[in-house]
Amino acid sequence: MPMVFNIEFQMRIKLPSVDKLKEWREQVLIEQRARLESLPQFSKRFDEFDEDLLTDLIVEDVTTLEEALGELRRVGHEITAEDIAEWRPAVDDEGNPGVYLLETRKLRQDSRVSALLDHLRANPAPTLLRVNCISLDDHDNVVASGVFRDYDAYREYRLPLIFAAVAAKEIGGRGHVSFFGVDGMEPVALFCDFNQNGVEVNEPDIQEAVAWKVHERFDAIELTSEGLRRRP
Fold first, then answer.
1. Is residue 148 pLDDT above 80, yes or no?
2. By the 8 A CB rule, do 199 and 36 touch?
3. CA 190 to CA 60: how far, in whole Å?
């Protein structure tokens, strides 16, 4: 049975120059949260679990990979050694011994924008995410689009994508990150628009989507050997 994908996303960013594109790629994603927290009702829309893609962790009081995986399975996280991209002995903030883990389909918490772009290109979680296109067209015009399988995948990726948008705004960029679709009975309409004047995040009733020009936000785009173009 083919996998059903329901929640579309598109990130479209225009940067002032090629130099600004390079600068944007080096911005740390998680540092953008402080800029978002001043927005009205931010805490009502997002919580710490929305950063789940940016997750490396230390499992305490273990010394081997097998013990660390066993602890995670004990608390309900089904995981095997094949799911791990990196691990090593480590200590936590209080000096207690443990094991550092980075899952294959996760990013380090201090990841930069470039790591998110590389992650989307490689797409290590194809059962959760379908990437339709990702391109740095004309060197300063960034487009990434795709579809999430379900609400949980959308929750995992939405804030890191918005972080990337906020990082672009801070160096003179403009554009949007948009999410739209339905997972079962859970409707999704989340629009983040930004320019030099600020960032605006809106989560309207999905029935009011026409007023938000959804079709323009998700203008049909495809990647060709000559760059980006609209589908006929």
1. yes
2. yes
3. 37
Two tokens at 87? 């691990």
What SS3 class is residue 196? coil
Q: How far apart are CA 113 and CA 107, in angstroms?
A: 11
Q: How many CB atoms lie within 10 A of CB 158?
A: 22
Q: What does each C-alpha distance from 167 to 21, 60, 66, 162 come to in angstroms?
A: 11, 33, 38, 9
Expressed in angstroms, the distance from the first to the final Cα of the chain is: 29
Please give the radius of gyration of the chain, using alpha carbons only, rounded to the nearest integer.
19
Closest residue by Cα to residue 8 from 219, 225, 170? 219
Helix (H, G, I), strand (E, B) or coil at 212: helix
Asked whether 229 and 222 are in contact (CB, 8 A), the reply is yes
pLDDT digits (tens, 9 = 90+) for 20-58: 999 999 999 999 998 888 887 676 777 666 668 999 999
Q: Give the position of tokens 């203008």.
A: 219
Main-chain phi, psi angles of 128, to 5 degrees: -105, -25
- Has residue 225 got a pLDDT over 60? no
pTM score: 0.86
Q: Which residue has the tokens 């929305």?
A: 50
Tokens of 229: 């173009």
Question: How many CA atoms are closer than 13 Å to the CA of 102, on its beta-carbon side?
Answer: 12
Q: What is the pLDDT of residues 79-91, one digit of tens each?
A: 999 999 999 999 9
84 within 8 A of 104, measured Cβ to Cβ: yes
